[in-house]
Specification:
Blueprint (H helix, E strand, L loop, with lengths): L4 H12 L2 H8 L4 H26 L5 H25 L4 H24 L10 H29 L15 H35 L6
């Protein structure tokens, strides 16, 4: 592996994934929520920069091509698990989260099974939009959990009055996050089916079944 800046950013993002739950181990809430949010936002920004810089500087590598999607999946999966736990196992969050987790495991399994043929499952433009939607949704949900924990022991951030479309800022962030993660789940399911459809010819036995 060459220690180029794009590869360094990928490694840092991969290392940041397990730090998300550690924020809740070492920090009290809501500081842990906001720290996890900041860490996740930095990781999301580096996700864009490492790919852009690798292409712009001609520093694309096999290491980057392999580790970049792994870092993305690690960040998303770990963050989804943490948010689901701290959101009281909200069923409106569990269902889209399950779709996201299933798809990531399923596609990773397909790529492993296909081996050299996995090149046909290259990342599509819609898959990139899917990843962006996931990261935005997770960031907004972290904001919602942090604000909710803050408002439990403090007056609502909007004072004595409530927002015309929501009871509090935490409710607004949570509702927006749930909407975004449902959108992300739909995109995730569509891209998962697209990859499966491309892989189907290689899943048939020699007798055609």
């Amino acid at each position: 592996m060459r220690w180029t800046l794009p590869n360094i950013l990928t490694v840092l993002r991969l290392a940041a994934a397990p730090l998300v739950p550690l924020m809740f181990f070492f920090l009290s809430r809501p500081f842990a929520d906001f720290a996890a949010l900041a860490l996740f936002l930095v990781a999301a920004v580096t996700d864009w920069f490492d790919g852009y810089l690798a292409r712009a500087w001609g520093q694309e590598s096999r290491f980057g091509a392999a580790m970049d999607p792994i870092a993305d999946k690690a960040m998303v999966i770990i963050a989804v698990v943490v948010i689901t736990g701290y959101s009281g196992m909200n069923p409106w969050l569990i269902l889209p989260s399950t779709v996201i987790l299933f798809r990531e495991v399923f596609v990773s399994g397909l790529r492993e099974f296909l081996g050299d043929q996995s090149r046909m499952l290259k990342v599509t433009r819609l898959a990139k939009w899917k990843t962006t939607a996931q990261m935005v949704a997770i960031a907004v949900l972290f904001l919602g959990t942090g604000l909710n924990y803050y408002e439990v022991g403090h007056p609502p951030l909007v004072g004595e009055t409530s927002l015309p479309w929501s009871d509090s800022w935490s409710d607004l962030a949570t509702q927006a996050g749930l909407l975004l993660i449902w959108i992300a789940a739909v995109l995730t399911a569509i891209t998962g089916w697209d990859y499966f459809d491309k892989a189907r010819p290689f899943l048939r036995d020699s007798d055609g079944h």
